[in-house]
From TrEMBL:
GO cellular component, one term: membrane
Transmembrane portions of the chain: 35-56, 63-84, 104-126, 133-154, 174-200, 212-230, 264-284, 296-319, 339-370, 390-420, 461-482
Annotated source species: Gimibacter soli
UniProt entry keywords in alphabetical sequence: Membrane, Transmembrane, Transmembrane helix
Ranges of residues in domain STAS: 459-560
Protein's recorded name: SulP family inorganic anion transporter
Compartments in which it is found: Membrane
Length: 572
C-alpha cells in the first residue's frame, strides 16, 4: 500500500515564522531573550549601517533607514526565525555605481523595483532554485566584493585628498589613489588603525563584546582629543537627522523604470542570494529550517518599505544574523526589536554620532571586507579541481574589473558547462553477448563445464548496458556507440535499468536508432526502463511494434530467442 505525502499548501510555504513562533505559546522568558538579542544586534548594526551608507556614496542616515524599516519587515514577514535584515557590505559596489549614474532618486527606484522582483520570485517559488548557484561562484563574487570594498576604503583610511573625483572602477581608482599618497593624513591613518586593531583585539580577547561600537567610540574620543583636523560625519554630511522622514513613492514612470531595470535586477539577484545564504547559515547554527520563498517575499516587502522611507537596499546579513543567534534570540521578535533599538539610538544619539571620524568607519569596513573574503575556501578551490578553480577565478576577476551581475551570470554558465561535462563523462555503455544455455551443461558430478565465452555467445543477440543520465551532454557519445552496431545481429537488447534520467535529446537518439534498426530488419528490445523513461520514449515515437519493452534483460533475451525460433508472439 502506497502512502502519499501530504500536499504542500500555500500556508505551509508563506506563513511567516513570526506567526509560527507566536503559536508556540510565546512567553515572558522568550521576550526577555529576544530583548537581549535585539539590543546586542542593534549595537553591532548601528556603526555598520552608517559605514555602509557612507562607503556607498550616500548620506549615513540612509543606511539607518534601511536597518530600521527594512530590517523590521525582514523579521516580521520572513521565513527564517533568526534572520536580521539591513544594509549589507556586499551591496556597496552596486549601490555606489547606481547612485553615481542615476542619483539618489534612481537608487530608490531601483530598490523599489528590486523589492517587487523579490516578492514575485517568492510567490513564483523561485527561492528553491537559488541553491543551484555553484559554490565557486558564490566564493568568487564574495571575494571580489571584499577586494572592491577594501579598495574603496583606502581614501578615508589614509585620509587622502584627491585632486579629482574618485573613480569607481578598480583599474582607474588605484592610479588616482597612488597619485594622492603624498596627501596622507597621519591623524586619519592613526584613527583608522586604532579602530581596526581595537576590533581585532576585542574579537580575540572578548569575542562577545560589541567590538565595532567600542572601536568607533574609542576612535571618536581620540579624534576629539587630537589637535589635528579629521574629517567627520558632521564635516562631510552635516550630521544625522533627529527624526524619521515621511514616506514617499520613488519615481516609477515608464521611462525611469526602463532605465533602472538593469540595476534593479542586479539588486534583486544579489539580494536573493545573500538573504538565502544567510538563512542557511542560521539553519546550520540552530537546526531549524527556513522557508525560502516566504523569505524572498519578506525581502521584497522590506526593500519596498526601505525605498519608500529613503533607505538603501536591504538583504539578510550573515554577520548580524549569526550575532542574533549567539545572543540567544528565540524568534523574529528579536529582529524587530533590533530595528526599534536602532531607531531609538538614531533619535537620541544623532548629535553625538556626527563626531564620528570617517577614518574610524573605514577601519570598521576594512575589517568587514577582510572577514567577507572566504580565504580558506578560495585556497581550497584553487588547490582542487581545475574546472572549479577556473569558475572561481573568472567570477572573482569579473566582479573586480567588470560587473557583479555579469560575474554571476558568466560564473553560473561556466559552472553549468563544467557540470554537464562531468555528467557526460559519467555515462557508460557496455556490450554483453547473450549466452546460449545449451553450451553450459551440468556434469554428472554437479559441476559446470568450463566454457569459452566466445564459443558460448549467441551470434544473433547483443546486449548493451547503459549506465548514468542519458541526456543531451551524453547523447552524442552513446549514439556513436550504438551506430557501430553490426548488421549481423538480429536482436538488440538495450538495458535501461541503470538510467535514472532520459531527456528529449536522449529519447530522440533512441528513436533514430529504432528507425534505423527497423529498416535493416533488426529487432529492438528495451529492458528495465522506469515508467518515466518509457513515457519519454513513447512520446518520441519509440513504440511497438518497432520496439518491445520488457521488465528485465533476462526476459528480453528469452523473448528474443522465441523470436529467433519463429514463435508466434514475435512482436506481441
Amino acid at each position: 500500500m502506497h502512502r502519499h505525502l501530504p500536499k504542500v499548501t500555500f500556508a505551509d510555504l508563506f506563513t511567516p515564522k513570526l506567526v509560527t513562533v507566536l503559536r508556540e505559546s510565546y512567553g515572558r522568558g522568550h521576550l526577555r531573550s529576544d530583548l537581549v538579542a535585539g539590543l546586542t544586534v542593534a549595537i553591532v548594526a548601528l556603526p555598520l549601517s552608517i559605514a555602509i551608507a557612507i562607503a556607498s556614496g550616500v548620506s549615513p542616515e540612509r543606511g539607518l533607514y534601511a536597518a530600521i524599516f527594512g530590517g523590521f519587515f525582514v523579521s516580521a514577514l520572513g521565513g527564517s526565525r533568526f534572520q536580521i535584515g539591513g544594509p549589507a557590505g556586499a551591496f556597496i559596489v552596486l549601490v555606489a555605481a547606481t547612485a553615481t549614474r542615476h542619483g539618489i532618486d534612481g537608487l530608490l527606484t531601483a530598490t523599489f523595483m528590486a523589492g517587487l522582483m523579490l516578492m514575485a520570485g517568492g510567490l513564483l517559488r523561485l527561492g528553491s532554485y537559488i541553491k543551484f548557484i555553484p559554490y565557486p561562484v558564490t566564493v568568487g563574487f564574495t571575494g571580489g566584493i571584499a577586494v572592491t570594498i577594501m579598495a574603496s576604503q583606502i581614501k578615508d583610511f589614509l585620509g587622502l585628498t584627491l585632486a579629482e573625483p574618485e573613480p569607481g572602477a578598480l583599474a582607474e581608482k588605484l592610479p588616482v589613489l597612488a597619485a594622492a599618497l603624498p596627501t596622507l593624513s597621519p591623524a586619519a591613518f592613526l584613527i583608522a588603525l586604532i579602530a581596526l586593531l581595537t576590533i581585532v583585539g576585542l574579537k580575540k580577547l572578548r569575542p562577545h563584546w560589541p567590538g565595532m561600537l567600542i572601536a568607533v567610540i574609542v576612535a571618536t574620543l581620540i579624534a576629539l582629543a587630537l589637535p589635528w583636523p579629521v574629517e567627520t560625519i558632521n564635516s562631510r554630511f552635516g550630521g544625522l537627522p533627529t527624526g524619521i522622514p515621511m514616506p514617499m513613492l520613488p519615481d516609477l514612470s515608464p521611462a525611469r523604470v526602463m532605465t533602472m531595470l538593469p540595476d534593479a535586477t542586479a539588486f534583486a539577484l544579489l539580494g536573493a542570494i545573500e538573504s538565502l545564504l544567510s538563512a542557511v547559515v542560521a539553519d546550520g547554527m540552530t537546526g531549524r529550517r527556513h522557508r525560502s520563498n516566504c523569505e524572498l517575499v519578506a525581502q521584497g516587502a522590506a526593500n519596498i518599505a526601505s525605498s519608500v522611507m529613503g533607505g538603501l537596499v536591504v538583504t539578510g546579513t550573515i554577520a548580524r544574523t549569526a550575532t542574533n543567534v549567539r545572543a540567544g534570540a528565540h524568534g523574529p521578535i528579536a529582529g524587530m526589536l533590533h530595528s526599534l533599538f536602532v531607531l531609538g539610538f538614531m533619535l537620541i544619539a544623532a548629535p553625538l554620532a556626527g563626531y564620528i571620524p570617517l577614518a574610524a568607519l573605514s577601519g570598521v569596513l576594512v575589517f568587514v571586507a577582510w572577514n567577507m573574503a572566504e580565504r580558506h575556501a578560495i585556497f581550497t578551490l584553487i588547490r582542487g579541481q581545475k574546472g572549479e578553480a577556473l569558475v572561481l577565478l573568472v567570477t572573482f576577476g569579473l566582479t573586480i574589473f567588470r560587473d557583479l551581475t555579469e560575474a554571476i551570470v558568466v560564473g553560473f554558465a561556466l559552472g553549468a558547462l563544467l557540470f554537464i561535462h562531468r555528467m557526460s563523462e559519467s555515462v557508460a555503455i557496455e556490450t554483453e553477448m547473450a549466452l546460449v544455455p545449451e553450451d553450459l551443461p551440468d556434469n554428472p558430478d554437479g559441476t559446470r563445464t568450463p566454457y569459452d565465452e566466445h564459443e558460448a555467445a549467441d551470434p544473433d543477440i547483443v546486449i548493451y548496458h547503459i549506465t548514468g543520465a542519458f541526456f543531451f551532454g551524453a547523447a552524442a557519445t552513446v549514439g556513436a556507440v550504438l551506430d557501430r552496431i553490426s548488421d549481423g545481429y538480429k536482436v538488440l537488447v538495450l538495458d535501461f535499468k541503470s538510467v535514472p534520467l532520459l531527456d528529449s535529446t536522449g529519447a530522440n537518439t533512441i528513436a533514430g536508432l529504432a528507425a534505423k534498426l527497423e529498416r535493416t530488419g533488426t529487432r529492438l528490445i528495451i529492458a528495465g526502463a522506469a515508467p518515466a523513461l518509457r513515457h519519454a520514449l513513447l512520446v518520441h515515437g519509440v513504440r511497438p511494434p518497432a520496439v518491445k519493452y520488457t521488465p528485465s534483460v533476462d526476459t528480453g533475451v528469452a523473448i528474443a530467442r522465441r523470436w529467433l525460433a519463429g514463435k508466434p508472439d514475435a512482436r506481441a
